[in-house]
Prior knowledge:
Elements: H1 16-28, H2 31-44, E1 56-57, E2 81-84, H3 96-113, E3 121-122, E4 133-135, H4 145-156, E5 193-199, E6 202-207, E7 212-217, E8 234-240, E9 243-249, E10 278-287, E11 290-298, E12 307-315, H5 328-343, H6 345-361
Parallel strand pairs: 1-3
Antiparallel strand pairs: 2-5, 2-12, 4-12, 5-6, 6-7, 8-9, 9-10, 10-11, 11-12
Helix pairs in contact: 1-2, 1-5
Amino acid sequence: xxxxxxxxxxxxxxxxxxxxxxxxxxxxxxxxxxxxxxxxxxxxxxxxxxxxxxxxxxxxxxxxxxxxxxxxxxxxxxxxxxxxxxxxxxxxxxxxxxxxxxxxxxxxxxxxxxxxxxxxxxxxxxxxxxxxxxxxxxxxxxxxxxxxxxxxxxxxxxxxxxxxxxxxxxxxxxxxxxxxxxxxxxxxxxxxxxxxxxxxxxxxxxxxxxxxxxxxxxxxxxxxxxxxxxxxxxxxxxxxxxxxxxxxxxxxxxxxxxxxxxxxxxxxxxxxxxxxxxxxxxxxxxxxxxxxxxxxxxxxxxxxxxxxxxxxxxxxxxxxxxxxxxxxxxxxxxxxxxxxxxxxxxxxxxxxxxxxxxxxxxxxxxxxxxxxxxxxxxxxx
Length: 381
């Protein structure tokens, strides 16, 4: 496993380069085996949760050393530094049947790939909860009928489309545009690192994944025009005692892909267009090295109830740093994805149709996809 000296023996974080290696293998294979290889490749990027334990890196964190909160020269809690929110706890509480369904859907892919996925895990352990969602209390996201129907319609619009007919068939993360919210603040399989900077009138969150920087004004300025819509929305922050509250609105209308469902969805991603989405975050430092981070997601056109996830953030050890997230290594991976789609058009169509049907059958189309669970599911005892 490649490592970079001097950085806590942390494996190179971006598995985009591993995708390039897979495509080199693809091109070297005889045509008779490319069909099965291509199918494995299309799901490998999202199946890194099946990686073996020896290929997992655990984030180095600092234990609480003082109950006294560090403060800036201007008196607010000092959040500055590098933080990690990695965990294997799933966003949503899965039922026993959903877990079983996930295991069944994964099995063929695990057997075909040896269970390695396309990269190395970078995860800490579980927290003492069954889900990151704490409200509703059962840990479940409830969608409106309108929201579910929109996703079904977008799945149906995929009929006749392959996995990579166009770059529009891939999500905004794969296209190196944005991970969007709330996805960008929910831990995934790797790169769950955030660097925070503060001034009296700004709060900046630098996210390692895709290297997006969220710049949050704290000076009371009004929101931008409703006509200005952004991938990460328009954020405004204020202090509620020692808790920093960040409210974000004015998201663009294509957070979930647009007219049809991307062939590779992000399980923790948006389920609506973004036009009526509001995200409220609360950063509360409970000790010098721990942030109680909570994020509430509201979208009346998509969710019957708002939901809140609580995700602890721990200060990273002094020898940990952010890596450059070289998205797609010059975008060669997108070219390779489209080329692979042309290698066997019928297989690409079959794979896209299969995954689309799995999503609809799962009950939350485009979200609780059986082949791509929120977290790796342990083997059945």
